[in-house]
Design goal:
There is one protein chain. This protein has two domains: 102 residues, Leucine Aminopeptidase, subunit E, domain 1; 323 residues, Zn peptidases (Aminopeptidase, 3-Layer(aba) Sandwich). The chain is 36% helix and 19% strand. The chain contains twelve helices and 17 strands. The strands form four sheets. Strands 4, 5, 6, 7, 8, 11, 12, 13 and 15 form a nine-stranded mixed sheet that branches.
Length: 442
């Protein structure tokens, strides 16, 4: 990521030898205009790096500070690269971007820097192979992040998870040689506007083979290090929220394990007992994400949340429905909450598409031998997964399925290649908007 700077105008040199890039904003829909500005920033970044330019100025001349910030966002996110395991070659040259123009404040630059840094951190975690980022290591990373930024982190180990009776998380972990973890993050400022917290829950499957319901390798198992993209989004979102000290009480829950076909792995037709006491018939061990999220949802009931949001690379059905262009959302929350999320999604261009959540989908997960089963028919797979989750909370729920946009197999402008950090910017702006609303009437 390029370092942002808004301190002062940098004196220009003689015109000879300077590179000047000009982008003219079109008069169009605001959502489209800001996204076009981000993409222009990505193009600017690519050009600067191709010429090995280390420092650049971005000057907004049209008086639209928001568009200038959007372009700077595009530059910074496009400049991201994951080079941890590269032993040769040069990384991107761009190291510093100075942003100037009407309406550009130091506070706006610092906010953008905090958000972009959080997105890039989430991308790093998604891109990191499981040979390093086990469930234990991810919990350690979250603990270090909390100490660095200043939010509370509590990590529960396998013995404690067993004491909680989290049969979903323990069941998925049975085939692994590495223990599971359950991590609680909390940002609770003294001036919080909400009496009851927002609870964000992220799927933390650090690698998913499918278990005994083994995935095929090409275009499936080979990039399943990304199956903790939901956990990365929650951690990145709370990191940005805490860095900016937003006046909202937010709790994050991260159930984490890998899913492998080990000697003790659960098998299709097994029945497991969840944290809230419900029994689940496991019809497919590759429908594991909902099992660990369900335990987290049940655990989160103690906080009596104002709203609970789950985020996960959960179903191929969601990806097939809307592609990589947005996030499939559904749940039991009031329609006004979905409208708020949609408006924020349009603003940051992590757009949401609300799927129906009809009562008929409940019948799809009925089991003949247990309370419910973890798989419906081959129809409406995203919704039946959402219905499964809804059985584990009595509070308003929004479920976000990011199976499409969390990990890209080809480069896409400022979203890059590989992990995108999808959800971080959406969560940050959603919580920021909640803080601006102040106290809710009881």
């Amino acid at each position: 990521m390029a370092q942002l700077n808004a301190d002062a105008l940098i004196a220009g040199s003689e015109s000879g030898g300077q590179l000047v890039l000009v982008h003219r904003l079109r008069k169009e829909d605001r959502t489209a205009l800001l996204e076009r500005a981000r993409k222009a920033g990505a193009e600017m970044c690519a050009r600067l790096n191709s010429l090995r330019i280390a420092e650049a100025q971005l000057v907004g001349l049209g008086g639209d500070g928001e568009a200038t910030i959007a372009m700077a966002e595009g530059v910074c996110l496009a400049n991201y690269e994951f080079r941890k395991y590269k032993t040769s070659g040069k990384g991107n040259a761009l190291k510093k971007l100075t942003v100037m123009g009407a309406g550009i404040t130091q506070a706006a630059i610092e906010e953008l820097d905090d958000v972009c840094e959080s997105v890039c951190m989430a991308r790093d975690w998604v891109n990191e192979p499981v040979i390093f980022l086990t469930a234990t290591q991810m919990a350690s990373q979250i603990r270090d992040l909390g100490k660095q930024i200043g939010f509370k982190v509590t990590v529960f180990n396998k013995q404690q998870i067993e004491a909680f009776g989290m049969g979903g998380l323990l069941g998925v972990n049975k085939g692994s040689q590495d223990p599971p973890t359950f991590t609680v993050l909390e940002h609770k400022p003294k001036n919080a506007v909400n009496d009851r917290p927002l609870v964000l829950i992220g799927k933390g499957v650090v690698f998913d083979t499918g278990g005994l319901s083994l995935k095929p390798t090409p275009n499936s198992m080979d990039y399943m290090k990304c199956d903790m993209g939901g956990a990365a989004a929650v951690c990145g979102g709370i990191a940005a929220i805490a860095r900016q000290n937003l006046p909202v009480h937010v709790i994050g829950l991260i159930p984490s394990t890998d899913n492998r076909p080990g000697e003790r792995a659960i098998v299709p037709s097994d029945v497991i007992r969840m944290h809230n006491g419900l029994t689940v018939e496991v019809m497919n061990t590759d429908a594991e994400g909902r099992l660990i999220l369900a335990d987290a949802l049940s655990y989160g009931e103690q906080f009596k949340p104002e709203l609970v949001m789950t985020i996960a690379t959960l179903t191929g059905a969601a990806q097939r429905a809307i592609g990589n262009y947005g996030i499939a959302v559904m749940g039991t929350a009031d329609e006004s909450r979905f409208a708020e999320l949609k408006a924020i999604g349009d603003q940051v261009y992590e757009r949401t598409a609300q799927l129906p959540f009809w009562a008929e989908y409940d019948a799809e997960i009925e089991s003949t031998i247990a309370d419910i089963k973890n798989l419906g028919s081959d129809l409406a797979g995203a919704q039946t997964a959402g219905k499964f989750l809804a059985r584990f909370t009595k509070h308003p729920l929004i479920h976000l399925d990011i199976a499409g946009p969390a990990y890209l197999l080809k480069r896409d402008s400022y979203r890059g290649l590989g992990g995108t950090g999808c959800g971080v910017r959406l969560f940050y702006q959603f919580v920021k908007a909640r803080g601006a609303k102040g106290k809710r009437k009881k």
